[in-house]
């Protein structure tokens, strides 16, 4: 018989929990740290209305009209006209590598056709892999263009102000013409799923050795740290590939995501990305005292990865500091690569710029993990 | 490593050949400001069973870890199997079997899988045969598929020993191998250790059990990081300078209460219907006991101190540097 409810016993259990909570410093820090991290990320870093998007400009017909058009676009705050292209292939390259979000072409004879009332074409190409990043800017574009020209169309040209618009604004949503969100999210999910499971699985696998006391046994045997690390990591690369196959199959069959580029290239890049995440997990495992701490560290890594990588919110909508943090994270670069390969059909040349930081991250974290994983118990 | 003929002599001198399996001097290890091992010197002859005794937290485990290269000493030097413990820990690891205090094999692997893993770690040839032999030798053959986590304490200990001797080490370091194991399993374990020693293996074993200490060729007693005494059991007892009287009959509880704290009486302890009284001076001891032997109806006889008497005496004398 337990007897009636005892406040004394209840208090005893609560006091014991509080003492244990206080002893586990890391857990305590996480309980305070995670809300702060979330406040900073959600409060300051996220902006669903990205401004100052990098834009390339190809002006084949410089005139007062083209100047006022581009000036108005710059003044709108949406477009940052930082690239001046000289031919369409350059524009293709800038869009493929993701260096610009938009490319604007003002064709030969633009000003002549405008004055004749022949409604010249202004071509706006958008990298629409992430529809959320482009939709607001594109929606504002028509208004910006009309207002800019209305100011110039004075005197004898005032008649051109009337409807229809004096120019034919043609918007090409490249890579994702219908602006389907799934095209962006599903390939990105590959990176997110891998980030979460790979980091956590290795962090737990190595911490478990220490928690159960088997690490001492391993250290007493003639095995090198690198052998332990590699041996622990390689099986999980296999697990990662199983996840990738599932996601690619689902992307194609369930969501109809176009797969334009080479899956072989993607497989090759995946090795680097998976290994980078596993190295992070391994590093965590050398820091964590128990599996709970390893879980918490994984979460602490996962949260900014998802929020600052451009998976959930447009990368270019974030303030500079958040973009800097994002640039360090492997997920950021992998998302650009995977979207580039699947949606844009990018090859090695186009993704090289994102692959280099990924490799650098892997090298640095591996070195750190090996340094932390000691061969003795000192 | 082979040196091509005609080339210069290798820069590293070959390890000195000594008959001692372990020969270390002045080992010191600190964790933070805690001095855990203080100037410990040990010499263990090849083929000997060397008992390592001392209270909990006395530095036994740390000393063993220093010997097998899991820890690096802050000071001191020496050799283990003729190899420098500072510079050749990787080579030492290959020839040493280390059994940790806490069971440290993989509980979610079966007995055979654990042994197979260990065999691969040491790069053993004829792996299957060696694993089968080890299973056979320790009576684990019909449990080979059982998960290590499901085994009882005695079987876990057998598995650990089987894994430690799989690579045919020259030296076994056993850290409290029989803690929490029943007497029959303990007896069998020690029979096995003696068989291994007879085959030429050197064994260093830490224990809290006096009967186990008495089965060692030589023992060392360490307290609070300091080596207090060492040598064969009889010599350790004789060298303690301790005198013991056994009191029986009469009201032992009263005798014990009266003698505790009495000048010249170091220890009083009840063993069933007898009282062990020990001190460094036999005459003083007899004088203290005289009123009880004459007036009370107690019988007092002189006896050799037991190993336990000696150790408690040593423990009382050593200063606890953690307090």
From TrEMBL, chain B:
InterPro entries: AAA+_ATPase (IPR003593), ABC_transporter-like_ATP-bd (IPR003439), ABC_transporter-like_CS (IPR017871), P-loop_NTPase (IPR027417). Signal peptide: none annotated. GO terms for molecular function: ATP binding; ATP hydrolysis activity. The keyword Kinase does not apply. PROSITE patterns: ABC_TRANSPORTER_1, ABC_TRANSPORTER_2. Gene3D superfamilies: P-loop containing nucleotide triphosphate hydrolases. SMART domains: AAA. Keywords: ATP-binding, Nucleotide-binding. It holds the Pfam family ABC_tran. Residues 22-249 form the ABC transporter domain. PANTHER family: ABC TRANSPORTER G FAMILY MEMBER 20 ISOFORM X1, ATP-BINDING CASSETTE, SUB-FAMILY H, MEMBER 1. This is ABC transporter ATP-binding protein. It comes from Azospirillum griseum.
């Amino acid at each position: 018989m337990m007897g009636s409810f005892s406040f004394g016993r209840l208090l005893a259990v609560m006091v014991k929990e509080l003492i244990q909570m206080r002893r586990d410093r890391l857990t305590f820090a996480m309980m305070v740290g995670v809300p702060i991290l979330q406040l900073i990320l959600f409060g300051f870093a996220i902006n669903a209305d990205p401004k100052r998007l990098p834009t390339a400009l190809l002006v084949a017909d410089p005139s007062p009209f083209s100047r006022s058009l581009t000036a108005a676009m710059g003044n709108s705050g949406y477009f940052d006209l930082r690239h001046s292209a000289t031919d369409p292939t350059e524009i293709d390259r800038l869009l493929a590598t993701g260096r610009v979000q938009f490319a604007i072409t003002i064709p030969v004879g633009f000003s002549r056709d405008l004055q004749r009332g022949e409604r010249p074409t202004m071509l706006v190409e958008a990298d629409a892999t992430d529809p959320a990043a482009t939709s607001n800017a594109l929606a504002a574009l028509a208004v910006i263009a009309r207002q800019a020209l209305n100011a110039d169309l004075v005197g004898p040209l005032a008649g051109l102000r009337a409807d229809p618009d004096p120019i034919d604004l043609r918007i090409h949503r490249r890579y994702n013409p219908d602006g389907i969100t799934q095209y962006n999210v599903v390939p990105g999910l590959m990176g997110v799923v891998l980030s979460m499971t790979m980091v956590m699985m290795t962090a737990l696998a190595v911490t478990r050795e220490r928690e159960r006391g088997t690490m001492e046994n391993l250290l007493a045997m003639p095995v090198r740290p690198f052998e332990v690390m590699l041996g622990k990591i390689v099986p999980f690369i296999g697990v990662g590939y199983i996840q990738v196959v599932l996601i690619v199959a689902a992307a194609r069959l369930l969501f109809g995501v176009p797969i334009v580029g080479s899956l072989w290239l993607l497989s090759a890049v995946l090795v680097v990305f998976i290994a980078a995440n596993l190295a992070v997990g391994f590093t965590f495992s050398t820091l964590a005292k128990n599996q709970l701490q390893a879980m918490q560290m994984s979460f602490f890594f996962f949260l900014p990865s998802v929020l600052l990588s451009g998976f959930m919110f447009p990368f270019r909508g974030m303030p500079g500091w958040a973009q800097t943090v994002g640039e360090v994270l492997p997920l950021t670069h992998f998302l650009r690569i995977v979207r580039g390969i699947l949606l844009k059909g990018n090859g090695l040349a186009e993704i090289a710029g994102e692959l280099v930081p990924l490799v650098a991250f892997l090298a640095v974290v591996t070195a750190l993990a090996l340094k932390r994983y000691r061969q003795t118990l000192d | 490593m082979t040196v091509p003929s005609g080339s210069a002599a290798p820069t590293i001198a070959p390890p000195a050949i000594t008959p001692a399996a372990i020969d270390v001097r002045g080992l010191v290890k600190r964790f933070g400001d805690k001095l855990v091992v203080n100037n410990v010197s040990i010499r263990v002859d090849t083929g000997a069973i060397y008992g390592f005794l001392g209270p909990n937290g006395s530095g036994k485990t740390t000393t063993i870890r220093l010997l097998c290269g899991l820890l690096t000493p802050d000071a001191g030097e020496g050799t283990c199997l003729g190899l420098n413990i500072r510079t050749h820990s990787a080579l030492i690891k290959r020839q040493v079997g280390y059994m940790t205090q806490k069971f440290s094999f993989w509980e979610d692997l079966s007995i055979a899988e654990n042994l197979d893993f260990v065999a691969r770690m040491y790069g053993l040839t004829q792996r299957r045969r060696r694993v089968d032999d080890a299973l056979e030798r320790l009576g684990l053959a019909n449990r080979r598929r059982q998960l290590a986590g499901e085994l009882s304490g005695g079987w876990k200990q057998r598995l650990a020993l089987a894994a430690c001797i799989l690579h045919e080490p020259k030296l076994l370091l056993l850290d409290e191998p029989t803690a929490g194991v029943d007497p029959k399993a303990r007896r069998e374990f020690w029979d096995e250790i003696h068989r291994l020693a007879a085959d030429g293996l050197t064994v260093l074993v830490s224990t809290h059990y006096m009967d186990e200490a008495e089965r060692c060729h030589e023992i060392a007693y360490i307290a609070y990081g300091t080596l207090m005494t060492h040598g064969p059991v009889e010599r350790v007892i004789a060298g303690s300078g301790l005198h013991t009287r056994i009191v029986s009959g009469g009201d032992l509880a009263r005798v014990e209460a009266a003698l505790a704290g009495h000048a010249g009486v170091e220890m009083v302890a009840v063993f069933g219907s007898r009282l062990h009284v020990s001190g460094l001076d036999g005459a003083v001891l007899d004088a203290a006991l005289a009123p009880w032997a004459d007036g009370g109806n107690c019988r007092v006889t002189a006896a050799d101190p037991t190993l336990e008497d000696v150790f408690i005496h040593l423990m009382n004398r050593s200063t606890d540097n953690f307090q």
